[in-house]
Amino acid sequence: MISRQNLSDLLQISESRLRELQDTYSMLPATRCRRSTHCCSMLPEMTLLEALGAVQLLREQSSPVRHQLIKNIVSYFFINPARLSACPFLAGRDCRIYNNRFFGCRAYGMWSQEYYNSLAAHSRETKKAVQQQWRKLGISLPQQVIDFQLPYCRHVTTVGDNPIDDEGLSRFADAIETLSEQFIDWHHIFNRNYFADLSFLTTSLIFGITGAIQIKFTVVRDLVTTGDRTRLKKILGELPDPFTEAA
Q: Structure pTM?
């Protein structure tokens, strides 16, 4: 498991790797989009290194801004099986971390339609498996949440004579994965135990993995059965800051 102290230690040794990550991002073609925020309807999966970059950004925010973002991230983790909710970093039509957004955000709209359709098919199968797991717990998730799928984006265009194909994007994804793998066991722990999910990691730093899962069950049950958000509001109103320096 990743503790606050582990996180602090990882941040101390990640500075050069985070610079390499930004250098890798900068080699992707520049893009234009209509900023319709379709791609901001979820928090993408990411590598541990990208998650560390997000935590570093959170640490650099003022306390009120950071606290609001933490509430957004934790709320996203608890309610996303039961409600369609936007990425925690979305503010209106703007991304709070746009210049440092994750590879999943950058690549959306650049994959070919054929490859994107294969990703969408895999996502649908994953959602069906998640739906079955919740049913075993006695909870039927809303079908509109299970059925929701980001449409293929036709509004992103590359700038200049620097197009990129699926193979090129895959090479960038592999390069980012390789950078993150230099953290060895921690990279695999993030993937295996937290499912490459920043919201799960954040919530677990506050409540522990078991506690985070137990609370998620009760919050989702409340939302699905009665729509009651009382428990969720109480939890969000009492959140500590997991990203301050560990004692």
A: 0.95
